[in-house]
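Researcher: Good morning. I'm working through a list of sequences from a screen, and I'd like to move beyond sequence-only analysis. For each chain I'm collecting a predicted structure so we can compare shapes side by side. This is the next one on the list. No need for commentary yet; just the structure.
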Amino acid sequence: MPLKDILSLRLYTRVAHLGSFSAAAREAGLTQSQVSRMIAELEAGLGTRLLSRTTRAVVPTEAGLEFLARMEPILAAIDDAENSVRETGELRGLLRIGMPSTMGIRVIIPRLSAFTERHPQLHLELLLEDKWQDMVKEAVDIGIRVGDLPDLAGTARLIGTMRRVIVASPDYLAGHGTPVSPQELQGHRIVGGPAGAHASSWQFERDGSTASIDLSPQVSTNDTAGALAAASGALGIVSTTSWACRLELESGTLVQLLPDWEMADLPVHAYFPMGRTTRLAARAFAEFLALELASPPL
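Model: Good morning. Structure tokens for this chain:
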């Protein structure tokens, strides 16, 4: 396949995902007219319209979506073939990474500089979303997830653990009192967040003693940042991870409760939706992140 055709295919996938000719052109270092012309030539060669163009958006047609789903694995395989024989070990191509939004902003993105400097020709697309994505449909190469994984068709690797804590704001505690035992939590307002989205109770352990406290959240959210905002706004007590609330704890916006009681750590997994055919870049990223999460411990 001529290199020009491969470039056209890569440009098409970027336009389809970004919804913009100009954004794809900026990424590739081309002009918008060049990208538009190459996509038009690709469509003419295929004899079908791949993109629907309006004044507001550029979106794939039904044929374009089908073509995108079939072409992205082929382009990824080409990237892997090139990367496997490149003596420098430098990775190239596009790597799509899905991760929880707050974890991405507070933990992963600040640690990415060393990885991007090591692989300057590898383009990272970060999809920040707390809900579980359809990684196959969205062509995600690797997903980073906190907590137990559902039964999925891909493969996963444990890359770390995160400590769970419960926190509340000084204003909430001033108005409702500070619990000194897990049992006293039952008389307090609870904020439900992603860290405990599927739990019906909170479990604690200290010196061999255990306590299980039933949950009845007054406010619930599917976003970690939202749960922290609710707790900071004196809406109640929230269970989260120590990395998520580190800034609030340092500033005094939130305070940790029951520090002598331990809650079970949450596992952090790298999930590979393509299983055994996972790309080299995805596995390299998982290896990098496992080392980063281990030092310092979260």
